[in-house]
Amino acid sequence: MQVRFKITRQQGQSEVRLQTYTLDVDPSTTILDCLNLIKWQQDGSLAFRKNCRNTICGSCSMRINHRAALACQQNVQAELAHAQSSWGDQESTTAEQDSESLPVIEIAPMGNMPVIKDLVVQMDQFWQNLEQVEPYVSSASRQLPEREFLQSPEDRSKLDQMGNCILCGACYSDCNALSTNDTFVGPHALAKAHRLLADTRDQATEDRLEQYNQDIQGVWGCTRCFNCNTVCPMGVAPLDQISQIKSQVLANPQLPTNRPIRHRQVLVDLVQAGGWIDERKFGLRVVGNNFKDVPGLFSLLPLAGRMLKRRKLPMTFEASTGTTEVRSLIDAVKKLKSSTQIPPSSSPDAD
Question: How many domains does the chain have?
Answer without folding.
Answer: 3
